[in-house]
């Protein structure tokens, strides 16, 4: 989706002026891109009409930079389609907050229970209880038990011979006794929606009176994702959606359609199998990502989460005081390397996603090793005070690291620019949105 949309838009960008015909052609391309990405047909129709009307209404053809205006309209309408604001988890005024999962088999319910429980534990010091109510696959209980064990979160289970309704009742009683503040009910799924499953889920809903019913949808199932969502929602009236496996979904159709079709907000997205691979769903960021503008904020959040917090704080302080040095730089490089494949990270930087320069840039882990080699050739004094690095010292670094002098120079220049940018960022040049995130 991203690629096609970008093509449609970059066609416009090259033009100084946009004619009626250009606009029609662009809208046609966008329409095709959306349909190809499995966005629901009705949703596409409405979307195109809205964008076209807005584009026509704003005198776009005479505008200063018409292409940018259209991109802005598309961006805003995509965002609107996905719900505009991030919607937090419901919270009950009195404990516990009960969260019930629903979704097809393999959608990611159990994994998401683990991810959410861990998030609440880490962020709010919550004390959740996980109820294992999927009795149909013996392995399902073990799976939840293992997650709970690894994260030190208690799991309530009664084996596979007890009716799930009874398990939920007793699980809730246990949560009341232990004063757990959150209860997650991990339910069974089927390969397809069937009545027996729906009856069971409806009964569990009646018993548990959940504050939140999270429908877990596999983003890779495309059009089926929307049908599944409708099916579950009609029967259960869910309160929110978790879209999983977004890491494997290159088309993005499900993210775009689900809100429009069901009216239910996507609250979280799963972006991998690890327990930390869960993110709050921000419609505006998703839209930027689809449009290939990158997803800087998610990147920053990812970095924050993966950073050792104390270290990050120290570095932040140093950036503020502008004393960030090569030792800190190495620290950061190590952390970046721990964050995962570099390509994934680079893709989230605005303008990088489809930037041909990226391909020539060879962001291969070797580059990081070269940078490290240069820094390790510095004396401690040089690392702390990069201003010492005069030409003769730089030649020494080149010899010591086995890298050419130009590369040493380039690296130092990049470091200086980064340092300048950081201290700028840290000292109030950030947008209020970013500042919020840093606090
Ligand atoms: P359930 O049947 O709905 O409980 O699904 P599970 O939680 O057992 O997940 C099914 C499979 O999908 C497991 O192998 C998970 O590791 C995997 N999975 C779940 N969420 C994600 C995600 O966001 N990304 C990826 N790549 N895999 C996921
Ligand atoms: Mg499961």
Quick rundown:
The protein is α/β, with parallel strands linked by helices. It has 21 helices and 8 strands.
What does this structure look like?
There is one protein chain. By secondary structure, the chain is an alpha/beta fold. It folds into three domains: 2-81, Four Helix Bundle (Hemerythrin (Met), subunit A); 97-291, Rossmann fold (3-Layer(aba) Sandwich); 299-438, Orthogonal Bundle (434 Repressor (Amino-terminal Domain)), CATH 1.10.260. Helices cover 60% and strands 9% of the residues. It is built from 21 helices and eight strands. The protein has helices at residues 2-13, 20-36, 41-57, 66-81, 109-124, 138-151, 164-178, 195-208, 223-236, 253-262, 283-290, 296-306, 309-321, 326-338, 342-347, 356-361, 365-376, 380-384, 391-401, 405-429, 432-438, and strands at 97-102, 128-132, 155-156, 182-186, 212-218, 240-244, 266-270, 278-280. It has an eight-stranded mixed β-sheet with strand order 3-2-4-1-5-6-7-8, sandwiched between helices. It starts with a helix and ends with a helix. Residues 60-64, 357-362 and 428-439 have low confidence and may be disordered. The chain binds guanosine-5'-diphosphate and magnesium ion (MG). The site of guanosine-5'-diphosphate has 19 residues, from helix 5. InterPro entries: AAA+_ATPase, P-loop_NTPase, Signal_recog_part_SRP54_M_sf, Signal_recog_particl_SRP54_hlx, Signal_recog_particle_SRP54_M, SRP, SRP54, SRP54_GTPase_dom. One of its GO terms (cellular component) is signal recognition particle. Residues 1-82 form the Signal recognition particle SRP54 helical bundle domain. This is Signal recognition particle protein. GTP binds at residues 103-110, 186-190, 244-247.
């Amino acid at each position: 989706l991203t690629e096609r949309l970008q093509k449609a838009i970059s066609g416009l960008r090259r033009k100084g002026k946009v004619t009626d015909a250009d606009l029609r052609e662009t809208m046609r391309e966008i329409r095709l891109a959306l349909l190809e990405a499995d966005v629901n047909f009705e949703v596409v129709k409405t979307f195109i009409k809205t964008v076209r009307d807005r584009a026509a209404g704003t005198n776009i053809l005479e505008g200063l930079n018409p292409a940018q205006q259209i991109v802005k309209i598309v961006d805003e309408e995509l965002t609107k389609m996905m719900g505009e604001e991030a919607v937090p988890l419901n919270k009950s005024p009195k404990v516990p907050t009960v969260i019930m999962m629903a979704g097809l088999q393999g959608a990611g319910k159990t994994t998401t229970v683990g991810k959410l429980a861990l998030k609440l534990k880490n962020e709010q010091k919550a004390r959740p209880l996980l109820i294992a109510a999927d009795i149909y696959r013996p392995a399902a209980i073990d799976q939840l038990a293992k997650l709970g064990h690894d994260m030190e979160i208690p799991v309530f289970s009664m084996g596979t011979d007890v009716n799930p309704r009874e398990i939920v009742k007793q699980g809730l009683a246990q949560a009341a006794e232990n004063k757990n503040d959150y209860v997650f009910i991990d339910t069974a799924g089927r390969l397809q929606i069937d009545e027996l499953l729906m009856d069971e889920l409806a009964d569990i809903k009646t018993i548990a009176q959940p504050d939140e019913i999270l429908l877990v949808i596999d983003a890779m199932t495309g059009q089926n994702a929307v049908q599944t969502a409708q099916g579950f929602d009609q029967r259960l009236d869910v309160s929110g959606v978790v879209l999983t496996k977004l890491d494997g979904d290159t088309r993005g159709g499900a993210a775009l359609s689900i809100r429009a079709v069901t009216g239910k907000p996507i609250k979280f997205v799963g972006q991998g199998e690890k327990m930390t691979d869960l993110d709050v769903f921000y419609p505006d960021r998703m839209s930027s990502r689809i449009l290939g503008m990158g997803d800087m904020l998610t990147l920053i959040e990812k970095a924050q989460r993966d950073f050792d917090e104390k270290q990050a704080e120290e570095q932040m302080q140093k950036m503020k005081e502008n004393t960030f040095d090569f030792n800190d730089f190495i620290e950061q490089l190590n952390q970046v390397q721990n964050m995962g494949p570099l390509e994934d990270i680079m893709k989230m930087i605005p303008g990088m996603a489809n930037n041909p320069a990226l391909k020539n840039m060879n962001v291969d882990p070797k580059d990081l090793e070269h940078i490290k080699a240069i820094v390790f050739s510095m004396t401690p004094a040089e690392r702390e005070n990069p201003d010492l690095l005069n030409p003769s010292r730089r030649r020494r670094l080149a010899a010591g690291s086995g890298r050419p002098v130009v590369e040493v120079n380039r690296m130092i220049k990049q470091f200086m620019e980064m340092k300048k940018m950081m201290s700028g960022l840290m000292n109030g040049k950030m947008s209020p949105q970013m500042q919020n995130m840093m606090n």
